[in-house]
Amino acid sequence: MTARPVRIGIVGGGLMGRELAVVCGRWPQLVDHPCAPEVVAVADPNPAALDWFRRIGSVRTFTDDWHVLLDDPDIDVLYLAVPHNLHEDLYVAVADAGRDFLGEKPFGIDLAAAQRIVAAVDASTAFVRVSSEMPFFPGAQRAYAYAASGALGDILDVRSQFAHSSDIDRSKGINWKRRVETCGAIGVMGDLGMHVAHLPLRLGFQPETVYAMLDNVVTERPGPDGAPVPCDTWDNALLALRVPTGVSPQDRRFSMLWETRRISPGNMNSWSFEAVGMDGGVRFTTRNPTVVHRFVRRDGEQVWEEFQPGNVSAWPMVSGGIFEFGFADALLQMWASYLAEREGQLGDRFGTATPHEALSSHRVFDAALRSNGSGAAEPLS
Ligand SMILES: NC(=O)c1ccc[n+]([C@@H]2O[C@H](COP(=O)([O-])OP(=O)(O)OC[C@H]3O[C@@H](n4cnc5c(N)ncnc54)[C@H](O)[C@@H]3O)[C@@H](O)[C@H]2O)c1
What we know:
Blueprint: E1 4-11, H1 15-25, E2 35-43, H2 47-52, E3 61-63, H3 66-70, E4 77-80, H4 87-96, E5 100-103, H5 111-122, E6 128-130, H6 138-148, E7 155-164, H7 180-183, H8 188-202, E8 209-215, E9 220-222, E10 228-230, E11 236-244, E12 253-261, E13 269-277, E14 281-285, E15 292-298, E16 301-307, H9 327-342, H10 355-374, E17 378-379
Parallel strand pairs: 1-2, 1-4, 2-3, 4-5, 5-6, 7-12
Antiparallel strand pairs: 7-13, 8-11, 8-17, 9-10, 11-12, 13-14, 14-15, 15-16
The structure holds nicotinamide-adenine-dinucleotide (NAD).
The site of nicotinamide-adenine-dinucleotide has 22 residues, from helix 1.
């Protein structure tokens, strides 16, 4: 099969923009993928950010103005990876122009912004998806497939967690992710929330109420001149959700926890998913990514058994099936999924998060802010 070239323009050449450039460089790792992406343009007002891309031979446009990329007919797909306060104007303009894009989470700084973005996407012909790569770990794929198979029986308990300790050092300087103005009032939920929402929402676990405990631990950080400035975003968020089962008895709800933490001592970048039901259960964490745990009842015993999923994600890879998988592989797989789906060739493979999943996550985060204020469980609006 001849792979179709896909020319990508990056808006926001920071941490995630650079990650995509590297993903495209190792594209031959995928077997028989229908696309051959290359980064051809980058827009960023920071000259140092632009300069990094001079090492990527395929990049021919370097600009401080993203409109240049929007107007370029030789760009097929845009990757939007900018601070949250810029999402709405950018995403709406790109959707209105009918240009395909993968947009970084949280897909708008708040619920109202997400609603306007998703309305623009719905009214557009553009193929749009939302970045969320952790479910592409092989163990996460197996956990999802097991939970989706119905093997769990009546669901009892779901836990989804993303925990790191990027903010455990009080002397770390302020940046846009630590300010309500640029990150959003949802704070850590805007940073990590889509990651914990993706699998539960894909499984149809749609919460109806939220009880939230939000914690702003570090309230000041050194500014550019070293003097302390307010650090006003939530560091940690624990959301207790009630989820209707939709089956008899009709009033039964199960419990689900979504946990996002920037300060979780001992965790560097741990994404975990667990779902347990009357007949079975499954557990996976990137702390221990080569194994999946599965609960079964066998011969009168309750057994948590362990198996190794190997190196098998959504799209086949050149790398051996026994080799270890990591964060960069998850990004490669997410992009493989996005571009294959855009090409109509995803088949029954796992798809990238959708704009409506991002909107559902925002509805939960909005109710969480209300719950934290009222001290009571709040319904989704
Ligand atoms: N999927 C993930 O795992 C993951 C990880 C980190 C961040 N993110 C998301 O990616 C997005 C970007 O985060 P980041 O960590 O790359 O941030 P970053 O600060 O490293 O990079 C953002 C870049 O955007 C640039 N920028 C600012 N204004 C711009 C404009 N008007 N036009 C073009 N570029 C502009 C900045 O100069 C900077 O280089 C956010 O939405 C964030 O939530 C996702």
